[in-house]
Amino acid sequence: MKAIAINGSPRKNWNTATLLENALKGAESVGAETEMVHLYDLNFRGCTSCFFCKRKDSGFTGQCAMKDGLTEVLEKAMASDVLLFGSPIYIGNITGEMKSFLERLLFMNVSYDSPSRTNFKGKISTGFIYTMGVPHDAVESIGYKYIFESNASLMHRLNGISEYVVSADNYQFDDYSKYAASNFNEKHKAAVKAEKFPEDCRKAFEMGARLCSGHSKI
């Protein structure tokens, strides 16, 4: 069993990365081999619509023909059993790096011929972790749930189950006094970090373990 975490945050040791690390620990707890990939370390672009993955006899069916910093990561991803994605919400959606990664990962597997709409013959289960600064009670009213469910639906191209964990009202800075951020209450953020974030870490751990055990969420 191989589980790979894809960190779509520019930070390697903050909220998103911490939750992904917990998800990987969950995967390891049931015997999975794990790896973390930081997208901001890589030099790559999103899909350029070259359509080589759709051309007959191109040899790129189910593969991305672009060669850049993402090539090896895509190869590893397609050979994995579980993919764990993590992204903060920036300006109402996942980061540009994560969006570009998903374009490359998913489009090469989209079939224009098969009724199932996928070329992928294997099975990869997926879990998504979303982090954000908005309070918990605003997540649904803002409409973020549509993003979460839409991404989960897209992951069905990989023929596995898909889940997600939402971590809201995150602590954003190491020292709030250094930033122009008076709309946020540091004491409240600190309380959420102390009380709620450990629960989010537990949920991430459980998701990693569950996906690597082949069991869907009940």
Describe the 3D structure.
The structure is a single chain. Helix 1 (15-29) packs across helix 7. The protein has 218 residues and is of the alpha/beta class. The chain has helices at residues 15-29, 71-78, 96-107, 139-142, 144-154, 186-195, 197-213; strands at residues 2-7, 33-38, 82-88, 124-131, 159-167. The radius of gyration is 18 Å and the shape is globular. It has a single domain (2-213), classed as Flavodoxin domain (Rossmann fold), CATH 3.40.50. It has 7 helices and 5 strands; from the N terminus they run βαβαβαβααβαα.
Q: Quaternary arrangement of the chains shown?
A: single chain
* Helical amount: 25-40%
Sequence stretches where pLDDT stays below 50 over 5 or more residues: none
Distance between the termini: 22 Å
The ordered H/E elements are: EHEHEHEHHEHH
CATH architecture heading = 3-Layer(aba) Sandwich
CATH class label: Alpha Beta
Mean pLDDT: 92
Number of strands: 5
- Shape descriptor reads globular
Domain module tally: 1
Radius of gyration: 18 Å
Strands side by side in the biggest sheet: 2-1-3-4-5
| CATH homology superfamily name | Flavodoxin domain
Content of β-strand = 15-25%
Category by helix and strand content: alpha/beta
Counted by DSSP, the helix tally is 7
Largest sheet: 5 strands, parallel
The CATH topology is what?
Rossmann fold
